[in-house]
Amino acid sequence: MTMIFDVYTDATRGTTLSGTVQYRDPDNYGFNQGPAFGLQLIMEGWNERGDFGPGSVSPAMEAEFKELYELYFGPKARVDKKGFLLEDGSTEVRIPRVQAEEFYRGRIHPYGGRGFSDGVHYIDLVPEPGAFARRTEEIIVSWEIAEDDDFEIDGDGGTSASFTLQVSDPRYLEHFRKNAFFQTTFTGHLPGA
């Protein structure tokens, strides 16, 4: 996966987060102006925590971020080798037995397919961009991003933009207690757009 942006953030101030997003590619296509980009940056900060990245979050926020990722990328239906759905949190086949293809008819991701992770088979389901957009409206109260006209990254790098966002609840920013750096492939676009 090629990282598109370097993200630098200041420590959060209540419900406000400010920072800079820099294109890594000199042939960039501008910065997405929609608030979904702000939510994606918050999500990616949680996902890319590390030495220089944002910190940890509460178990409740971790569950919420996982849910947001599932809305954006599509959830995974856990199955056995033959495609029967498994019980939640188990490797046992669900009773009554039902094929995932039948149970999730119309919701199987046409390009996702099947996979194997943590000792369990799975089938990718379709993303829910409408639900992700609704959650964005609930979480992001304001979002501003503006390209820095006077800033150009040395060498063959791209351009930079400053952003400020405000969330409806400070818990969405609890992992930004300090200045942070991380990278992302998120662009602000919704799946299928």
Biggest sheet details: 5 strands, antiparallel
Global geometry? elongated
Helical element count? 4
Q: Write out the strand line-up for the largest beta sheet, numbering strands in chain order.
A: 6-7-2-1-8
**What is the average of the pLDDT values?**
89
Q: Could you say which structural class the secondary elements and strand pairing correspond to?
A: alpha+beta
Question: What order do the helices and strands follow?
Answer: EEHHEHEEHEEE
Query: Helix fraction?
Result: 10-25%
Low-confidence blocks of residues: none
Rg of Cα set:
19 Å
SS strand fraction: 25-35%
Describe how the helices and strands are arranged.
Layout: E1 5-9, E2 16-23, H1 35-47, H2 59-73, E3 76-79, H3 100-103, E4 114-117, E5 120-124, H4 129-139, E6 140-152, E7 159-167, E8 180-184
Output the keywords.
elongated; 193 residues; alpha+beta
Protein architecture, described:
The protein is α+β, with helices and mostly antiparallel strands and 193 residues long. The chain is built from four helices and eight strands. A five-stranded antiparallel beta sheet has the order 6-7-2-1-8. Strand 4 and strand 5 form a beta hairpin. It is elongated. The mean pLDDT is 89.
Brief write-up:
This protein has 193 residues and is of the alpha+beta class. Helix content is 22%, strand content 27%. The protein has helices at 35-47, 59-73, 100-103, 129-139; strands spanning 5-9, 16-23, 76-79, 114-117, 120-124, 140-152, 159-167, 180-184.
